[in-house]
Specification:
- The protein has helices spanning 9-19, 24-31, 35-43, 50-60, 64-67, 73-88, 103-118, 122-142, 146-166, 170-183, 190-207, 210-223, 230-249, 253-267, 282-296, 301-310, 319-335, 339-352, 354-359, 361-373, 378-388; strands at 273-275, 278-280.
- By secondary structure, it is an all-alpha fold.
- The chain folds into four domains: 1-71, 434 Repressor (Amino-terminal Domain); 72-186; 189-312, Alpha Horseshoe (Serine Threonine Protein Phosphatase 5, Tetratricopeptide repeat); 318-391, no CATH class.
- A two-stranded antiparallel ribbon has the order 1-2.
- The longest helix is centred in the middle third of the chain and has 21 residues, at 122-142.
C-alpha cells in the first residue's frame, strides 16, 4: 500500500516514542487510540486525523507541530472553542447549577491547566476550558466558604485568558480578566490579587495605554504583601518585571531600569521556578531585560545583543517564556540588520513552543519583513512565513 505519511509524521511519532522509551502499546493506551492505529500511522500507511494527532502529541508530551510541521488543527480547535468559553462566563455572577466535580478535582484540573499554559499547549486548554469554567463557577456559587473556590475560579479563568489573548480574542480576554478581578477578593489573599494585577496588564498592552498600565502596576506593587515568603517575593518581583516592560513601551527608560533593578534584586533571593502560576527568578528577569530593550526601540537593541551573547534561557524556564525570548531577540536582530540571525531565532522559538510562535504578532511581523527583504534562504523563509500566516 502506498504511504500516506505527509511530512513523515509516522517516522516522527515513532522516533519521539522511542526517545521517551514507550512501546507502541503504551502510546496507544495513553492516547486512547487502538494499537492497530498506532502501528499503521508509524508505518506511514494511515494518516492521523487532527484529533488523533493531537491525542498522540499529548500522550508524547509534545506539540502536534513537532510531529507534523504543517499542522493547523490546534488553531481551528481553539477558534471553535472560543464561543463556548464566552458562553460559559456570560452570567458569571449568577448561580446556574450545581458543580459536577468537587473542589479537589477542580483544583487538580486547574493545576494541569497551569502546566499547559506555561508549556504553550493552547489546544489542550481550549478543549477543556468551557467545562472547567462552568464547573468552577458552579462550585464558587455553591461553596459555603468561597476562599478556595475563588482561587480555583481565578486559575481556570487565567488559563482560558491565555488562549483568548494569544489567539486575538481580546474582548473575551478582557472579560476573563474582569472575572478574575471580581473573584479574587473572595479568596482573601493579597498574593492572588497581585497575580491578577500581573495578568491585567494585557488589557493595557492591547489598548496601548502604557502610561495608565504603568500607574496600575505601581499601585499593585504598593499593595502587594511584604516579601516575607518565596511566593511574596515572586509576586512582587513579577510585578516589577511587568512594570519594566510597560514602562519601556511607554518610552520611559529610567522607570524601566528602576523596575528591572528591583526585579533583579528580588530574583536573587529565589531559585527560578513557578510561583502562583507565574515564572519568576534570575532567568525570567534576564528574559525581561531583552523584552525591555526591544520595547524601548531601536536605540536600545545593543542591550539585547549584549545579553544574548553571554546567555540563553535554559530548559528550567517554561516553554512559553523561552519562546518569547527568541521572538523578541529576533525583532532586535531584524532592527540591527542581522537578518540571518533573526530567522534562526524565529526557528528556535518555533522549536520550543510552536503554538506560541505561530500566534505571536511580532513573529509574524518579523518573518514578513525578512521575506520582503529577501536576506535569508528565500524558500525556507517563505515556508516559515506561510506557516506563521505572515503571507
Amino acid at each position: 500500500m502506498p504511504a500516506l505519511d505527509d511530512g513523515h509524521v509516522g517516522q516522527r511519532i515513532a522516533a519521539t516514542r522511542k526517545a521517551k522509551r514507550l512501546r507502541q502499546a503504551d502510546l496507544a493506551r495513553e492516547a486512547f487510540v487502538s494499537l492497530a492505529m498506532v502501528k499503521a500511522i508509524e508505518r506511514g500507511v494511515r494518516k492521523p486525523s487532527d484529533a488523533t494527532l493531537e491525542a498522540i502529541a499529548a500522550a508524547l508530551g509534545v506539540d502536534p507541530t513537532r510531529l507534523l510541521t504543517t499542522f493547523t488543527g490546534t488553531e481551528r480547535r481553539v477558534h471553535a472553542a472560543l464561543p463556548d468559553v464566552s458562553a460559559s462566563i456570560a452570567a458569571y455572577d449568577v448561580p446556574l447549577g450545581l458543580p459536577n466535580r468537587t473542589l479537589d478535582e477542580l483544583r487538580r484540573a486547574v493545576d494541569e491547566g497551569v502546566h499547559w499554559r506555561l508549556a504553550a499547549q493552547y489546544g489542550l486548554i481550549a478543549q477543556h476550558a468551557p467545562v472547567l469554567l462552568s464547573d468552577a463557577l458552579a462550585a464558587f456559587h455553591a461553596a459555603a466558604d468561597r476562599r478556595v473556590a475563588a482561587r480555583v475560579l481565578v486559575g481556570a479563568a487565567r488559563s482560558a485568558d491565555a488562549v483568548a489573548y494569544k489567539y486575538g480574542a481580546r474582548d473575551l480576554s478582557a472579560r476573563l480578566i474582569e472575572l478574575m478581578r471580581w473573584a479574587a477578593p473572595y479568596a482573601e489573599d493579597p498574593l492572588l490579587s497581585a497575580s491578577v494585577a500581573y495578568v491585567r496588564t494585557e488589557t493595557f498592552f492591547t489598548a496601548r495605554a502604557h502610561a495608565a498600565g504603568a500607574l496600575a502596576l505601581e499601585a499593585a506593587v504598593d499593595a502587594a504583601p511584604a516579601p516575607s515568603s518565596a511566593d511574596a517575593v515572586a509576586a512582587r518581583g513579577a510585578l516589577h518585571m511587568r512594570a519594566a516592560v510597560i514602562a519601556g513601551r511607554d518610552g520611559n527608560a529610567d522607570a524601566a531600569d528602576t523596575h528591572l533593578a528591583e526585579a533583579r534584586r528580588l530574583a536573587q533571593l529565589l531559585r527560578e521556578g513557578t510561583y502562583l502560576g507565574t515564572a519568576f527568578g534570575p532567568e525570567s528577569v534576564r528574559v525581561h531585560e531583552v523584552s525591555v530593550a526591544v520595547s524601548l526601540g531601536h536605540d536600545h537593541i545593543n542591550r539585547a545583543f549584549t545579553l544574548a551573547r553571554k546567555w540563553a534561557p535554559s530548559s528550567d524556564l517554561p516553554a512559553e517564556r523561552r519562546s518569547g525570548f527568541w521572538i523578541e531577540l529576533s525583532r532586535a536582530q531584524l532592527w540591527g540588520n542581522r537578518f540571518n540571525d533573526a530567522f534562526e531565532s524565529l526557528k528556535v522559538a518555533r522549536l520550543i513552543a510552536p503554538q506560541h510562535t505561530r500566534e505571536h504578532p511580532w513573529a509574524r511581523e518579523t518573518a514578513a519583513t525578512l521575506l520582503r527583504l529577501k536576506r535569508a534562504d528565500e524558500e525556507s523563509l517563505h515556508h516559515f512565513a506561510d506557516w506563521l500566516g505572515a503571507v
